[in-house]
Every structure is written in structure tokens, then in C-alpha cells.
Design goal:
single chain, mainly alpha, 9 helices, 0% strand, globular
Length: 329
Amino acid sequence: MALERLNGWVMSASPAPHLAPLLRAGAGLVVFGALSGFEAFKRVAWVNWVGSLAGLPAVVIGAMIAGLEGAVWGMVLQTAIGCALAHRALAAETAKAGVRISWTINAQGWTVLWRFTLPALISTLLATPAGWLSRAMLLNLDGGYAEMALVNAANQWMNLVQFLPFIMGSVLVPMFASLHAAGRPEELRKLLRYNLLLNAAVTLALGLPLVLLVRPILAWYGPGFGEGATIFNLTMLACVFLALNNLMSRTMQSTGRAWWDLISNALWAAVVLFLSWWLVPRHRGNGLIGAHALAAVALLAWQFGLVHFLLMRSDTVRAGPEPRREGSR
């Protein structure tokens, strides 16, 4: 019943009731979890590659049999295959490390849930609806679906550009956590600075050639997509800030500041919604991407100051008061 009410609200907000079966099918994509590795990066890569290759036929066959809805169900099956592979990999890593998985939660477990899991969950609950609502503003305009097609075309290339920086950020989380736990903040800051520069360089190296080739790229989608060059270029620019935001967010999470990361995401969501309300009716697709790009810039400025403050305060706390010199009063 709750799903039906939510589905009815979604369809009333976006005039496309024929998409209701796809939303129901796509709900299966959020049921399955992911592998939390023990810095076993080769095994994580293996799970991702094998899961993708094994699930690809399901998507293709589903699309051939039942069209778009079949493809969505194929994606659900692909995610389930990846989940099964990740479970086996996790079981192997825990056995290797001598870690026993328990379904009971002790006091330490509740502490982890409160300090990390709960704020991470709330962050997702904030960020996802904010992105959806900003897009709904565009879809409800006359010709909004055509504009959204231009946005989606650019987002496909954004996912390509973002893939490598995202993987790099995932690898850094256990490194940041280890340095923080060992009380080595200077090394943590050095690693963060290096990877901020590296992520920016990688994103620019991947995005700039696409900006130069924007016309032939959009021509592949059809004659009307040439109008989306500005949207495409703004999206590639936003990729740089998104990559840096992701790294700063992982820094806060890995150093035990998940609630601060939640506050950052809440501010981002508020900025996205305000800018979308202001820009989308005036500039349509350009306004939507511009709102997300400006929100990413604002978030990066906030995160940079916040991470600097938190890490510097961590140094002060660990160092303690200056030792009293002999003969001083």
C-alpha cells in the first residue's frame, strides 16, 4: 500500500504514468548490498568485472524479450549476481583475516551504527530526493522531456569520466582510516592533497578531449542533440568538482566525521533545490546542470574549510598542551 501511494505521488509529479511498472521493477535494484573489502582491491575488481560480464546477457535477453521493462529486470538480476559474488568474496576475506561475522549487535556495534551507518543512510535519503526533485522541475516544463534527454546524454559521459576518480576514492578510504587511527594526521593530509591534485588531473584529462569532441559525440545521438553542447560542457566542468567532493566526503567518513558529512550533504541538497527553483524555469536544461555545478562548487568550498579545520583540531587535541619548561612559573 505504501509503495502504491508513493508511486501515485511520483506519477502525479511527473506526467508519465506508463513508467509505473518500470519503477516497481527498478525497486529491486536497491535490495542487494555491496562488498566491504579488507583492502582486497584485486578481489573487489574481480567481483565488479565478473559480475558485470555475467549479468550483461540478462540485460540483453531481457530487452529482447520484454523491451525496456525486460532490461530493467535484467539489471536487477545483474545486481543479484554481483551481490552473490561479493558475498563469496567477503566470506573468503573474513576467513583469511580470522574475522567472524555475527548477526548480533553489541555495544560497539551500536556505536558504529550511530557514528557511521545512520548518518550515511540519512545522507542518501537527502541526496537522492534532492536530485530527483531538481529533475522533476525540468520534466514538468513544456518540452522538459526533450531537455532531459540532452541532460541524460551528457550524464552518460559524466559517468564515464567519474568512474576512475570514484574507484580511486574507494581505494583511499581504508588508507585514510588507517592513518587516522594511527595518529598520523600529517601523512593523511599529505595523501589527501596529492590525491586531490591527482583526481583533478585525471578528470580534466578525460573530460577536456570530450569537450573538444562535443559536436561529433552529440551527433551520434541524433540531429536534435546538437543543441545540448552547453549542457554537455557544463557537465564536464562539474565532473571536476564532483570528483573532489567525493574525495573530501570519503575523508570525513574515514576519519569518523560521518555526521559532518551528513551536514555537508544537507547543505548541498538545500543549495541544489534553491538554485534549481531559480534557474530551471529560466534556463531549462542549462539551468539544471548549472544548479548542480554551482552546488558542487559551494560544497567543495565548505568541505575544504571543514576538513582543514577538523584535521587541524585533531592535531591540537593529540598534541595536548605545550610541556612546561624547567624554571617557568
